[in-house]
Amino acid sequence: MADKDGLPSQVRLLTLNCWGLLYISTLREARLQEIGRRLGQLEPAPDVVCLQECWVESDFAAIREATRTVLPHGKLFRAGVWGAGLGILSRWAVEEAEMHEYRLNGRPTAFWRGDWYVGKGVAWATLRLGPGAGEVMHVLNTHTHAPYEKDAQDSYACHRAAQLWHMAKLLRRAAAQPSFLVVALGDFNMLPLSLPHRILTHRAPVCDAWRIAQPDSSLGPVAHGPEAARGRPVPSAAYNLAVNGATSDGLYNTWRWTRNRQNKLRRGLPCPVDAEALDRRGKRLDYIFFCPRSASPAHGWVVDTVHVALTERHPQLHVSLSDHFAVAATLKLHAPAAKSPTALDVQLAQSLASTAHHGLPRSDLDQLMALIRDYTARELRQRRLRALHFYASLVVWAGCLVAVWFSPRNFVAFILCLVASLVLASGIVDGLLALLFFSSELRCLGEFEHEVRSAAAAAADSRAPDVPEQQSTGNDGDRDSSQSPS
User: Pairing with 116, which of 22, 123, 172, 298 sits 20 to 30 Å away (CA)?
Assistant: First the structure.
């Protein structure tokens, strides 16, 4: 749908984590082919699709081929050792595209998790909607670091906070440019109204589309502290999809089932899900954010519809298409009525008001500083221990080489040489980590801390009351004499 100047009056968006890890993701190729087929057949067709965890280029090519008639333009972004896994499909031409890698993005020592190696970041595409200077749409697609641990033990919480801080800067930069619309989509690996969520919505002029449409939706799974404090009843599987927007860990997703139930699927059994079954683990990790302001002061962007999508199973394999469900939203360009405000008028006014002032409250800034201090202390300790291991390995290596000279048997000498080699190799790895990775990460933490301190100082200055100048009640001579030393 387009208005009189040819620009769209509404934009349909969709984001999906495809779970497309080479050699690791089960039934990867068949699932992603079906994802492409479903995207190409969606009614109404999406205008922009953001994909995460699409690491195999042939998978992205297959999705592009299946969606070519409705989404003729696309870009797979490359970063890191294994690729960022971020792709954007679009109805409109991609005028510019750039990849912004996160400076804090996991640790190389956690090689089995892979976050550090894939070079996670923000894929930024500028789409050309019309010939005018500001007739472009900025689309930011991201996949942030996964938690892997419970809230209190999450050693990557600082990284995720830094990533959202960085993305908020990019969104402010995008919103400051002449543009038709600014959106951010992806797998943010955060819960609604959590600290990372507040960083993005307080430091960038964007709104969470789902929270706009469902302001009373859950803040996480049932066991999550803030959600438990609300005292709400345990949601059903259907309610978690329709109202809470649970895209991960829900009962409907077959990849979260027990091994026994998954084996039944492989045998061709239907395994239906009771819509009224209690769903304690479902949570919302995938988001669509948008800037409500438009290029025209008489209009603004509102949420027309938003829902969880691509929940159907594979027709032959009977499994969910990914370990996440998709989120789809339709944003509508809206002009407020002069009289008798409508529901969309109220929504637009609230969205504009929520994005009018940027900045985290002092309590959140203090929480961020504590997070940075704790993680910095952890990394300093890790660097010291790994450096000690390097020096200790040199001593053991030298001791083994000396012992070889006094070895009475050849097999003992061989074992000593083998031990010396292994100890030296592991020591060199830890030495390089201490010298290169941990030093680099500590510098990035220092930069992050400086930015947070600067934000706290700016917030304090903005809250400080202005001191009015003293008004003179007499002549200048009286004022001077009263201020002169006696």
Answer: 172
Phi-psi region of 152 (alpha: psi -120 to 50; beta: other; left: phi over 0): alpha
Query: Token digits for 118?
Result: 């894939």
Return mean pLDDT, the chain. 92
pLDDT in tens, 24-68: 999 999 999 999 999 999 999 999 999 999 999 999 999 999 999
DSSP-derived 3-state class of residue 73: strand
Residue 44, preceding peptide bond in cis (omega within 30° of 0): yes
Verdict on whether the full-model pTM lies above 0.85: yes
Single out the residue of 272, 275, 214, 276 nearest to residue 245, CA to CA.
Answer: 214
Distance CA 445, CA 371 (A): 11
Q: How far apart are CA 212 and CA 231, in angstroms?
A: 22
Helix, strand, or coil (residue 427): helix
Closest CA to 14 of 378, 326, 441: 326
pLDDT per residue as tens digits for the range 120-152? 999 999 999 999 989 999 999 999 999 888 777
Any idea what DSSP says for residue 433? I
3.30.450.20, 3.40.190.10, 3.60.10.10, 3.40.50.620: which CATH number matches 10-217+284-358? 3.60.10.10
Q: Identify whether 197 is a catalytic site residue.
A: no
Using pLDDT thresholds of 50, 70 and 90, give the confidence band for residue 112: confident
User: Which residues contact residue 395 at a Cβ distance below 8 angstroms, ignoring those fewer than 6 apart?
Assistant: none
CA–CA separation, 212 vs 106, rounded Å? 32
| In the chain, domain spans | 10-217+284-358, 366-460
Point out which residues pair with 121 in neighbouring strands.
Answer: 101
Give the span between the Cα atoms of 72 and 93, in whole angstroms: 8
Q: Are 292 and 355 in contact (CB under 8 A)?
A: yes
